[in-house]
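The data are quoted verbatim here:
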Amino acid sequence: MKRIIIVATLMLTLLVFISCHAEKESSDKPVSTGELNWLINLEEAMEVAEENELPIFVNFTGSDWCGWCKRLQSEVFSQTGFISYANENLVLLKLDFPKYIQQTEETKKYNGDLATRFGIRGFPTILLLNSQGEEIKRTGYQPGGAEAYIKHIESLLSS
């Protein structure tokens, strides 16, 4: 009888631990009500920017290996506030330099050529371009989350 009580107590403790841990993990995940519409071609981004009179937000990233890129993704790009802001105020262009995600040779060359053209030396590098593809400002990861990042982008665009 003692063994049954001990086993039952251990199982109950385990179930409580698992449910508390699962609840904590789900509350830590970013909330998103939409997705960012990343383009992968500068020429297309320039056309969209011209049509909509918007700046181009270029994300040079190492999405699957760069720690700061992953932080920018989780702290800013996946957040509802940034998604809403970006989809209304920016043309998004992602130029990825992954280590483990497969890309065509054409994509690797295209992204590499743009990295050379803009003098990219590290990741993440964020460029703000006008609709002619000319650099306005450059930045990278900034602490503080989505709202702080939006203010940072707005200050770069207004200076």
Notes: Residues 12-33 have pLDDT under 50 and may be disordered. The longest strand covers residues 56-61.
